Amino acid sequence: TVKAIRGALLDIQQVVTNPEQLEDSLRYVSDGLLIIDQGKVAWHGRWEDGKDMLPEGLRICDYRGKLVVPGFVDTHIHYPQMEIIGAYGEQLLEWLNTYVFPTEQKYGNKRYASEMSGLFVNELLKNGTTTAMVFCSVHPESVDALFEECDRRNMRMIAGKVMMDRNAPDALLDTPESSYQDSRRLLKKWHKRNRLLYAITPRFAPTSSPEQLEKAMALREEFPDAYVQTHLSENLNEIEWVKSLYPEHDCYLDVYNHYRLTGERSVYAHCVHLTDQEWKVMEETGSSVAFCPTSNMYLGSGLFNYRRAADNGVRVGMATDVGAGTSFNMFETLNEAYKVVQLQKEKLPAIEGFYRATLGGAHSLYLDDCIGNFNVGKEADFVVLDPVATQVQQLRWDNSKALDEKLFVLMTLGDDRNIYRTYVDGRLVYSSTR
Ligand code: GUN
Ligand code: FE
Question: Where is the Amidohydrolase-related domain (predicted)?
């Protein structure tokens, strides 16, 4: 079970508290060697320094001319929404009613959910994403289907059953008690089984009664090492709605905070319209943000204040938010993120984008001790990139000198054509036919 990978290796050496430190943390080995043993990184360094350690007769995976990077981390995505990407013409609340809720009803059928889970995981791997934090539907069957699929490939994945007991079609509603029992059973079945992790998943405040959020709180107290994922402050009408449903709370985040759903391993998607007071709570509680640029542009939600979050030490990960997001691909997501930051007259350097998509994303999911870079002992999830998959990329690549310039070419022009191979747990799980 020993594997040797030869190629240019690029990763971020360590978690940074200030993005300015990233320059010194970028690690590039132009002719590198990665030795994988039992799904973990056993050695990382220069080919010259490591080649004599390799066992006699071991076949080398030779990726010279390619770029080997850690697997991408998508910190927020909905697998039942894969089939409604690009649904036309609505903003959040209308989009949920018109497209999302009718579609998610199909995921009570286990066979259908299994079939879609297979397509979904294939699509992640085809885009170099090896870890994701995933919303299933309200149906327990949808959760079993996804976890079974991920377990087969031994992926590091986080997912959970949507808890939702109001403001949606009857067929999609659970109750405080049933959501508690179902989530608890799924959590006990899947959390920490192999590399899988469970997230307590109240959809968002408008679709949960106070009684249901109390049940979510009870689960979190009973299983303090489980995750929490939900949506926060995405759209102005949504925020007004939360005010009317929870008038006794001063702000949207206060609803979740009151039910002790903030804190480590709590991941909030969007956070587009947070107030200063809410940002303070994010900072103080160690809660994480999933930045969803393609989704926020697509639904016209607004511009995420990336620099406010990143420069104040809030954990930020990149997220596609498919199906409101329009791409599974992390390069395309970074490309849009760059534009969102530009529109606020700020910058998103390529190294920082690369960090958010790998080690920074892992950090936001409290997984930086096991994934995100090539440190010895890390789990061997990685991607072999073809940095020049198109003619235009080739021209831009040849015209770029510094490494961060080349990375920026990938970030602006890259897509799934640049994903040459994907490895999970040290094993090849996707190979491009190009
Ligand atoms: N808010 C509540 N549910 C959803 C969802 O499915 N997608 C997005 N983008 N926002 C939400
Ligand atoms: Fe979402």
Answer: 67-429
76 lines ligand 1 (CB under 6 A): no
pLDDT surpasses 90 at 434:
no
In this structure, whether the domain defined by 2-70+374-431 belongs to CATH 3.40.50.140 is answered with no
Q: Note whether 227 and 267 are within 8 A (CB).
A: yes
The CATH number, out of the four listed (3.20.20.140, 3.30.420.40, 3.30.450.40, 3.40.1000.10), of the domain defined by the range 72-364: 3.20.20.140
Considering the entire predicted model, what is its pTM? 0.98
Indicate which residue's Cα is closest to atom 11 of ligand 1.
231
What's the chain's length in residues?
434
Domain-by-domain residue ranges, the chain?
Answer: 2-70+374-431, 72-364
Q: List, for residues 93-137, the tens digit of each pLDDT value.
A: 999 999 999 999 999 999 999 999 999 999 999 999 999 999 999
Pairing of strands 158-160, 197-202: parallel
Structure-token pair, residue 89? 């013409």
Residue type, 77: I
